[in-house]
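Page 42, continued from yesterday. The earlier attempt failed because a stray header line got pasted into the input along with the sequence. Redoing it now with the clean sequence only.
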Amino acid sequence: MTELALEAEKISKRFGDLHAVEDLSLAVNEGDIFGFIGPNGAGKTTSIRMMLGLIQPSAGTARIFGRDIHRDFKRAISAVGALVEGPAFYPYMTGRKNLRLFGRLSGGVSEGRINEVLQMVGLGRRGDDRVKGYSQGMRQRLGIGLALLNRPRLLILDEPTNGLDPQGMREVRRLVRRIRDDENTTVFLSSHLLGEMELICDRIGIIYRGKIVKQGRMDDLIGSGSDVAAAQVAEDEDGRAREFLEQKFSAEAVVVRRGWVEFPRCERNLYEVNRALMDAGFHVASIASRRRTLEEYFVALTGESQDVF
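This time it went through. C-alpha cells are written below.
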C-alpha cells in the first residue's frame, strides 16, 4: 500500500467571521506530483501554512508521512522542503553564499550538496553571481534549490511559476519532473495556472472558496479520451456553423475563436458531422477531437466566475 506523504483531515481556518478554509481534507501519495489548484484567494496558501505548522488551524489535523505536524513538529517537518510565497534572499550575496547561509541555519550542508543543488536547478554557472543580478526565473530556481538542500522526502512549492515567462514555466516543469524522478521526492505544487498544472501533475485537488470540491487522478477527472470536437470553417461562417450544429445535432456548440467551433464529442461520428456541414455549404478545413482541458473541467464544477486565473 502506498504511503501518504501528506494528509489533511478537515482543517479549517477562521479570521473573525471570515472562513478562509473550511473542512479541507486531502491525501497526497508518496511519489506523486500533486497539484493543489484554485483561483487567487481560494485559500491555497493558508492551507499550506496550516499543513506546514506555520499557523494554527481553527480545527482539524495534518500529517506528514504519518506524523502529526503539531504534536510531532520537528520530526514531521524534517522530511519537508518548502518554498511558500516566493523566495527571499540577500541580494548582495551570491547564490552559493545564500544557500550556504541558510544551510547553516538548518544544521549545516556540505559544499558538495550545494554544488549538486546548483547544478540540479540549472544555476551551476551562475552560483557565484550576486542574487541582485538574477532574473525572476533564476530566483525561483534558487528558491527551489534552497528547499532541496536537505534532501526532503516531500517538496512543497507555492506558486513556483509566478511571474515567469512561458520559457521559464517550461523550465520549472522540467525541473519538477527531474526532482521527482531523480531525487525520489514527492512534490506538492500550488498554483492558479490551470494549463500549467494539467501538463505536469499526476493527481490534483481543486480548492474553491476555501473548500475542496474534487480530488483524484488527472486522467480520471478530466478524461483521457477525446471529449471535445472542433471544426474549423471559414471565419465568416463560424456563427452560422454553431447554430447549425445546435439545430442538426443538438450540440452545445461554442465559437472559441474566429473560424473555430467546438462541441461535445459524445458518441457523435465526426465523419457524419463533417459531411452534414459540407452538404449545408460550409467550407470545412478540418474537424478533429481532443480531451477537455482542466480549465473546462473546473468551470463545469464551479460555474463561470469573476475569479482571476
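Notes: The chain has two domains: 4-218, 228-290.
Reminder to self: strip header lines before submitting.
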